[in-house]
């Protein structure tokens, strides 16, 4: 059974009222990276390839609708997007992040994996861009939902506590 958005919101920080949806909490994009070196997935262990952070630009022309708002201007390619919220998956639950459909409607997609019980961090997703895309920093790109789930242990992997200042 999936939990309510109000329940999910208790495990997301920071969260504004407008991010809380009936069945989950909207996540925003805080940073975007482009991988520049090979990574490796081994039978034991893995190495995450080096990345470069994409700098958002700020339009200053008064006629621009996004004047003053840092905006990632992305050409087609694969990017790693970091969410703006710290997420904690409570025991007895599993998390899923689903993309906002407006991304798909703009020929982009957010690919995500399983969020384990016990994980805390500011996680990441793979942003696939198939057509030039302007993404304002802080824009909502995804929704986090929680389902009740049995588990033996809690998450204790290398991403525990990632990206928390
Ligand atoms: O789209 C996702 C899915 C998960 N996570 C976080 C939460 C999850 O608990 C953690 C680890 O995910 P997973 O277990 O799939 O990664 P792994 O490659 O198996 O890492 P590890 O070896 O640490 O288990 O990463 C994300 O940031 N983004």
From TrEMBL:
Name the SUPFAM superfamilies on file.
dUTPase-like
Q: Which residues form a coiled coil?
A: none
Record's keyword annotation contains Hydrolase: yes
The processes (GO biological process) annotated in the record are:
dUTP biosynthetic process
Q: Which Gene3D superfamilies match?
A: 2.70.40.10
Extract one GO molecular function annotation from the record: dCTP deaminase activity
* NCBIfam families according to UniProt: PRK02253.1
| Name this polypeptide is given | Deoxyuridine 5'-triphosphate nucleotidohydrolase
Give the organism, scientific name: Natronoarchaeum mannanilyticum
The organism's taxonomic lineage, starting at the top: Archaea, Methanobacteriati, Methanobacteriota, Stenosarchaea group, Halobacteria
């Amino acid at each position: 059974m999936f939990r309510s958005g109000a329940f999910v919101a208790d495990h997301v920080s920071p969260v504004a009222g407008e991010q809380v949806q009936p069945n989950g909490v909207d996540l925003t994009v805080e940073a975007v990276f482009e991988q520049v070196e090979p990574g490796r997935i081994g039978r034991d262990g893995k190495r995450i390839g080096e990345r470069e952070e994409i700098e958002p630009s700020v339009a200053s022309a008064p006629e621009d609708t996004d004047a003053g708002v840092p905006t990632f201007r992305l050409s087609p390619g694969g990017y790693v997007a970091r969410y703006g919220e710290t997420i904690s998956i409570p025991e007895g639950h599993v998390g899923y992040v689903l993309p906002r459909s407006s991304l798909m409607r703009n020929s982009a997609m957010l690919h995500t994996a399983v969020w384990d019980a016990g994980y805390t961090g500011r996680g990441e997703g793979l942003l696939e861009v198939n057509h030039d895309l302007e993404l304002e920093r802080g824009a909502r790109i995804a929704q986090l939902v929680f389902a009740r789930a049995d588990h033996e242990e809690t998450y204790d992997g290398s991403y525990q506590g990632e990206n928390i200042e």
